[in-house]
Design a protein that fits this description.
Length: about 100
Amino acid sequence: MATFFPLDWSGGDDEKEKALKSYGAAARKLALVTLLVNITLTIAKAVASYLSGSLSIISSLVDSLVDITSGVVIWLTARAIKKRDPYLYPRGRTRLEPLAL
């Protein structure tokens, strides 16, 4: 997660660290809200496809399931990247990022 500050940043390191923490907290909240919305839409589409039997709604349901799966894979990969062990993984786990994409 890259965060850029202006070149003329007048705040101290403490302020910059607080800004980064609040940015991270906001990103986690946004990811959680997105996951909850995707799950809600998936449940609604499952009910609609059961009641209607429409192939169009079923394909939309499959698309929603893929969205949830990709979100979980990205979350698990980001979590694994944060847990670094320089002795076990000398190059770091940052190379896991292309796996998630």
